[in-house]
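Weekly sync, protein design subgroup
Attendees: M.S., D.O., the rotation student, P.L. (late)

Item 1: inverse folding check
M.S. brought a backbone from last month's batch and wanted to see whether the design step gives back something sensible before we order anything. D.O. pointed out we never logged the input encoding, so this time it goes straight into the notes. Structure tokens as presented (139 positions):
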């Protein structure tokens, strides 16, 4: 069945994704704040790469570490032939002193996530979770 033969599929899929994203939002906020508090610069992102790898592992997403030295690549295979989707995020922080006073501010002097890579990384974990769950359904 396709969206063309049953227009309700898109409504069902939309509702499913909405509920799933609402449910995982607290974890993603916690994950983003953890990454924000532990910034790593340049290619020295071993802790962050480990966090990403553990998240992918917990989601049952096939992954490879050490790509391009510290990169992590997750692979979610669809059940049918079709286009390939590639999504990426940077994990590194900047050599800047954080002065935000946030509860989850950088714990490392002279380093902070001032460019949003902490958010990008957490968001991609969320996208991975959503894609994995959607593929397990019969939409």
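Designed sequence read out in the meeting:
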């Amino acid at each position: 069945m396709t969206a063309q033969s049953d227009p309700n599929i898109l409504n069902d899929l939309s509702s499913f994704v909405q509920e799933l994203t609402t449910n995982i939002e607290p974890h993603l906020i916690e994950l983003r704040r953890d990454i924000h508090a532990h910034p790593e610069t340049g290619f020295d992102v071993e802790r962050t790469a480990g966090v990403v790898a553990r998240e992918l592992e917990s989601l049952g997403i096939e992954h490879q570490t050490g790509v391009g030295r510290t990169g992590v690549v997750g692979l979610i295979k669809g059940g049918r032939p079709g286009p390939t989707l590639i999504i990426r995020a940077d994990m590194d922080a900047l050599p800047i002193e954080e002065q935000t006073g946030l509860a989850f501010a950088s714990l490392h002097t002279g380093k902070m996530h001032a460019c949003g890579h902490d958010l990008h990384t957490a968001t991609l974990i969320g996208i991975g979770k959503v894609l994995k769950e959607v593929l397990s359904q019969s939409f």
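Discussion: The two ends are 8 Å apart (CA to CA). Residues 8-37 form the longest helix (30 residues).
Action: P.L. to compare against the previous round before Friday.
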